[in-house]
Amino acid sequence: MSPGYDRPLHGGFERGMTENCLSCHAGRIEAVEGTVHKFKIHEAAIGCERCHGPGSLHLERWKDHAPADRQLDESAKKSIDWTIVNPAHLPRHLADAICQQCHLTSDAQVTARGRRLNEFRPGLPLEDFFMSYQAVDSDESMKVVGHFDQMVQSRCYRESKTLTCLTCHNPHNTPSRDEQVDYFRSICLDCHQSGACRVDAKTRTEKSPQNDCVQCHMPAAPTDIVHFAFTHHRIGIHNEEPLQNQKLRSPVRQLKPWHDLSRLSEIDSRRSLGLAYFDHGSDGGPDSKYCFEQSIRLLEDVHERGLREGNLTSALSQMLSQSQRSKAARYASEALEDPEILAISKVQALYVLAADHYQNGRPKQAIVLVTQLTRLRRAAADWALLGYCEQSLGHTDAAISAFEKSVEINPRLLPIHRELVRLYLACGISDKADRQRRIGERFLDVLKNSSVVE
Predict the structure, then answer these.
(1) What angle separates helix 310-319 from helix 288-304, to the nearest 10 degrees?
(2) Where would you tag: which of 52, 60, 96, 292 has the fewest CB atoms within 10 A of its CB?
(3) Among residues 295, 267, 331, 346, which one has the least CA distance to residue 108?
(4) pLDDT per position as a tens digit, 167-214
(5) Can you tell me the distance from the alpha carbon of 233 to that of 164, in angstroms, rounded to the nearest whole number?
(6) Looking at residue 19, what is its pLDDT?
(7) What is the DSSP letter of 237?
(8) Are 372 and 350 in contact (CB under 8 A)?
(9) What pLDDT, on the 0 to 100 scale, is given for residue 32?
(10) How far does CA 418 lie from the centroid of its chain?
(11) Using CA atoms, how far apart are residues 91 and 109, in angstroms rounded to an integer?
(12) How many CB atoms lie within 10 A of CB 247?
């Protein structure tokens, strides 16, 4: 079951793949004309350059050498080839950053001002391109869920300067299932002595006949939680409480950056934190109201202090679109003037502004914007808004066409089913009206059983 599809009211076919998804699940991608969900995939699998950086200089250096010439002696192996990034030669925080591109679990992620997600290159600080934030719960504890969160809690990590992901995970050579126990135990014994284990040999053998260090010190647990670490990466002594039963979320009091962001100016720091609260609150969870309040406070402050950026004002427009519509529209207009605005921020601002035009009796202006929106993404709300705009202008056929597209994308939109029934009857198309009514009634039953009606 795909993450998020294990409940009745899942995202259906409306949930599109974003750049955030494909940046880790594909090798090299390029967004099509600034769209949100359309990409050219130049490299399907994760390739060498994701860990070693651009390879053109390296290829140029070695292309005229025969394979035998590439067998370096020990002294040459220890020297640095400056034409390529070798994670083994990087300081630990930069080597970690290479893996953190995809394996750092965060509650909110913010792209650095003036940067894009795909601009990160191995050997550079990850936080110069995007910042990750963790939620601190109301009991002052930080959730420890992802691989990196768990690993850095380990005494092995804190008391050494060399332990990294690569200590245990060789990206060029994965041990077979039969070899795994011996392989990982040998890594542990590079630092530890077998006799130092506090569990006596008899008990240890009863629990793990293969004398598997990982079984006790990095236990596995079944879980249905999205992106949860199936093998616990905090190396240490664990209690017997199953991981899936441990408390994973309580009300959030604040977000804290995962990396050291002390190099940021105060205004960039507040901008980044404000967008992090916006990102965390956008999931519609119980923290959303609090997160949006914090985000609005921070982002309006930096805006008043002179920071002008489309991603910032787009976020403000979306959060204020229900409570302060005219202010939200002004922010949306400002956001769309930024030529460097990210695609996801652009579509958010377009929708807010289009909705404002419609709500204020300007359907023609709204149609211009919402038509642009339908080319940039596939969303039921866009087609529904287009339908209402066409309907207000008396364009019944165009309204029907837009509403049909809306419920094709999201069949749970009962108000749109009702609009279609009414329009079909007005046009004398009773068979379509009856069919649409039956479809709407079936979805109403599903929604009632799920205790949610849209």
Answers:
(1) 140
(2) 60
(3) 295
(4) 999 989 889 988 989 999 899 988 888 777 878 878 887 888 888 888
(5) 11
(6) 84
(7) -
(8) yes
(9) 84
(10) 35
(11) 24
(12) 9
At 168, the amino acid letter reads: C
Give residue 81's pLDDT: 87
Using alpha carbons only, give the angle 5, 278, 41 rounded to the nearest 5 degrees: 55
The pLDDT of residue 142: 47
391: which 2 tokens?
């309907």
- Write out the CATH class of domain 378-454: mainly alpha
**Would the CA dihedral through 143, 116, 12, 454 be positive or negative?**
positive
Phi, psi values for residue 40, rounded to 5°: -95, 125
CA distance 17 to 377: 11
pLDDT, tens digit, for every residue of 73-102?
A: 566 666 788 899 999 999 999 999 999 998
Domain boundaries, the chain: 144-248, 378-454
**Cα–Cα nearest to 335, from 319, 347, 320:** 347
3-state class of 41 per DSSP? strand
For strands 39-43 and 252-257, give the pairing.
Answer: unpaired
108-111 sheet: strands from edge to edge: 108-111, 130-137, 252-257
Q: Cα torsion at 433, 391, 318, 9 (round to 10°)?
A: 0
d(CA 325, CA 331): 10
Q: Which residues contact 283 (CB under 8 A, 6 or more apart)?
A: none
Give the chain's residues under pLDDT 70.
1-11, 13, 66-78, 138-145, 221-229, 240-252, 446-454
Pull the structure tokens for residue 184. 């990982």
pTM across the whole model: 0.86
pLDDT at 121: 95
- Tally Cβ neighbours within 10 Å of residue 236: 13
**Residues near 355 by Cβ (< 8 Å), separated by ≥ 6?**
321, 366, 385
Which residue type is seen at 447?
A: L
